[in-house]
Amino acid sequence: MSVRGAAHVASIGAAFAAGADPDRGDREERAEIVVVGSGAGGAVVAAELAEAGRDVLLLEEGDHATRVAPETPPLARIGALYRDGGLSGVVGNTFIAVPIGRTVGGTTTINSGTCWRAPDDVLAGWERDSGIGGLSGGGLEAEYARVERALGVAKVPEELLGPGARLVRRGAEALGFHSTPLSRNAIGCRGTGVCAFGCPRHAKQSTDVSFVPRAIAAGARLLVRTRANRIVLEGSRATGLEATRLDGSDRPIGTLRVRADRVVVAAGALLTPGLLAASGLAPRGSEVGRHLRIHPASRVAALFDEPVRSWEGVPQSLQVRDFEPEGIILQGIWVPPPLLAPTLPGAGHAHERRMAAVERMASFGALISDSSEGRILRIGGRSLPWYRMNPTDVRRMQRAISLLARIYFAAGAREVYPGLRQMPILRSREEAERLEHAKVRASDFELMAFHPLGTTRMGVDPRRSVVDASGRVHGTEGLYIADTGIFPGSTRLNPQLTLMALATRIARGLIDRGAKPQG
Length: 519
Description:
This protein is 27% helix and 21% strand. It has 13 helices and 20 strands. β13 and β14 form a beta hairpin.
C-alpha cells in the first residue's frame, strides 16, 4: 500500500472512532439535521451539510465493514455486510434477489463501483413525467461533476479489464458490436476482484471511505447499529425520530430518540416506504411504495478451451451498449466459485467436471431497463416488496441473454450456461439464436436485480408523487428523502452517480434554506 493509501486508511479509522460501539441503555440526541442511512444518498447529504457548518447526526443500521477481517470468506462477508444475508428480494410471478448493503456505506460498499451519468433522454423523460425541470440538457452537470471529482471517477484502464472482459470484447467485435470500459469510483485499484465483498484496499470510493469520513471530519456524528423505527411528527412537521439500538448480534440494547429540525431519510427504495408507513405517512391510496423498478438482471457463464482466470481484474469493467435503445445493457460480473457452483447446470460427476473447469469459465451480466412496476406491500407491520415482470420485459431479458450467448460463441466458447430452465446448456450459436424465440416465463430465469428505484418518486403533483423537487415530502415540513426511491423512472444505467448528484442538490437546497450554522 502506498504512503498516500496508508494515510487515507488511517484517516478513515480516525473518523470512524466517532461511530464506536454504542453503550447499552436508552439515549437521547439533539441535532439540527438527522440523516437515516449512510449509503450513496445519506452520506452525500451528511457530508455536504456538515461541511457547511450544520449539526448533523448520521444513523446506520449496520456496522463498519472494516470490522470484518479481510481474510473472511465471501459467504461470511455476505452475512456481515448484506441485508438478510444477501437474500433480500422481491416476490411476484417469480422471486428476484435484490441484494443490498447493511453496513456503513450501504450498497456502495458491496457494489461494483460503476458510475454512469443517466442518459440525457432519460432525464428529459423524467422532466416530462414529473413536471420537475433542471435535470436534462446539462441541468445536473455541476452536481455530477462535483461528485465525480470527489470519487475520482475514471474509465477502467486496459490492464485491469481482466481476461473475461477481453473475451467478451473479442466476441462483440466479431459480431460488429461495440464495447467500452466502464467508469468507476476507484483510486489505486489493483483488480483484486472482490468488489462485492468490500474492497480490501479501500481503493473503491464507496461512501464508507469517501463521504462518511468527510462528514465526520467536519463534525457530523455517526451512530452505527441504529435502526430507525418511526419519524416523530408534531402536526404536519417532522421533529425527529425514534430508533432501536442494536448490539453486534442485532439484539436490542436500548432506544434512541432524536430531536431534530429536519429529518432526511435515505434508507433506500425498498426500506424508506416502510419507515414512512410506520410513521403514519402512507395513507391508503398514496403513492408511497408504488412504482418500484429494479433493473432485472441475469448472469450468463461460458466454458472455453483455454484458461480464462476470470477472477483477475475488475469484475465489472466492460459494457456493451449497442442495445441500450432497446433497454438492454450487457456488463461484466464474476462471482467466486462457492457462489457460482449452485448456478451451474448438471449434477453429480457432470457438475463436478464443470466446477473443476472453473479456471476456463467466464461470466457476464445482462441487465434490462424495466417497464414492469412493483410496490412495497405492508403486511403485519412489515414490508414485502412485490413485483410482477410483464411479458415485454420477459422478452427483453430473453433477447439480452441470447445476445450475450452469441457473443460468447463468437469469442470461441465451447458451452454457454444461460441460466434458463428450459435450455440450461447451449452448445452452438444456432441454439443461442433459438433461445431468443423460445417460450419462456419469468419464473424460468435465474434473476437478480441491484437497482431498486421509484417507490417515493418526485414530482410537482402530490397526487402522483411523494416528494417535490427539493426532496421534501409533500405535506410534511422538515422531512426529506434522498435515495433512489425519488427517481421518477428507470435510469437505464447504474443509478449510483445520479443519486449522488441529486443528493448533492438536495443538500445544497437544505443549506440555502436552513438555519444559520451552529456556533
